[in-house]
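Sample pair:
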Amino acid sequence: MTDPDSHRERRHLVRHVLASSHIDQAEPLIADQVRKCALFLGAQFGALDNDEQPKFLDDLDDFFTLSAIRWNAPWILGVLRILPVKSTQHFLGAQQRSIAYGRRSFDEYIAMYGRFSGRRDLLTKMVGLENKGAPMNDEEIVDELGSLLVGATDTTVTVATWMLWELAKHPDWQQRVRDEFRKNKIQFIDGVPTAKSIASLPILDGVIMESMRLHPAQAIGLPRVARFDGNIIGGIKIPAGVGRDHPEE
């Protein structure tokens, strides 16, 4: 979505879904999903059931790779499309399979719970939008859920991985975080801390923010396209429609 007005309208429709009050209501469900290693749509990954990675995650990995190729060297996709190799064509179909998975999960969710079930999850909030203005149709909701899933999967894992890596290199900061948890008597429910109990911990917050400063959440770079009127970065004019990357290093 590159049109500023359309993007602004979509943000208006979706932002209340991620309001802190709704996140608080969904916390028991989210904590349960964390323990199960499941999707927020309610379909379990089963990631801990065996050593074989779920096929959906394989497609998600391929989707990220395809996105990087599309942004940085789109001509490669043209070459890959003409190669009569089954594994290559399967790789190129990762995006379509991911979209189909999202659509199938959405349809199964609606069939099971309906559109106004009162469940405390993000999808119900999005499906049963009561915003002012025109609501999103099903295709737009599926697209938005895909963005949330891809964004949350990639960024959350990247931030958590780098944070744990930095803490492993700095055991003194590990101890500071532990001491802060003990001092504030953080509550754990079946091994998962409550959101409110860790929301105002300055040391933990500092560790997370410093990890993101050193290692941005978007590990493969964050592609952007200059708006219709262009941009000026560091005194350099970026013409409208020109793509640019924000690499990690």
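The chain has a mean pLDDT of 75.
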